[in-house]
Amino acid sequence: MLVAFSLAPASASEDGGVSEAVAEVVRVVRASGLPHETNAMFTNVEGEWEEVMALVKQCVDVLTARSPRVSLVLKADIRPGHTGQLSAKVQRVEELLGDD
Length: 100
Fold this sequence. Notes:
Blueprint: E1 2-9, H1 19-32, E2 36-38, E3 43-46, H2 49-64, E4 70-77, H3 85-97
Antiparallel strand pairs: 1-3, 1-4, 2-3
């Protein structure tokens, strides 16, 4: 299973930034040991349903400790029996693009 999620506290820093809160969440993701990547908008994580959802909950808990309201956007690709898709999906597209 692949999950792309984005978390943000309702109360940002004075300049409107959420980078400190995002860094706290990324630390939790990195400590999980699950395959992951973070980009400008989402953190992508790969694993079994139970472990990925437990990680998302843990990340939400980290943010609710600093903000009484948290926004969560989550998208999941549920494909039993497939692993290594975090990079394989991108690789398949790159192969089709060739030298474009």
